[in-house]
Design goal:
It is a single chain. By secondary structure, the protein is mainly alpha-helical. It contains 1 helix and no strands. The chain is rod-shaped and about 75 Å long. The protein starts with a helix and ends with a helix.
C-alpha cells in the first residue's frame, strides 16, 4: 500500500513538472517572439535612418 502511495506521489510530481516546464517553454517562446519582433522593428528603423543619411 505504501509503495502505491509513493508511485502516485511520483506521478504527481512528474505531472506538475511537465506542466510547469510546458508553461516555461511557452513563456520562453513568447519572449523570443517578442524579442525578435523588437529586433526587426529596430533593424527597420536603423536601416531607414541609414538610407536618409
Amino acid at each position: 500500500m505504501f509503495f502505491i502511495k509513493d508511485i502516485i506521489f511520483l506521478l504527481k510530481d512528474v505531472y506538475l513538472f511537465i506542466l510547469s516546464s510546458g508553461r516555461i517553454y511557452l513563456f520562453i517562446k513568447r519572449i523570443r517572439f517578442f524579442l525578435l519582433d523588437e529586433l526587426k522593428k529596430n533593424a527597420k528603423h536603423y536601416y531607414h535612418n541609414k538610407d536618409l543619411c
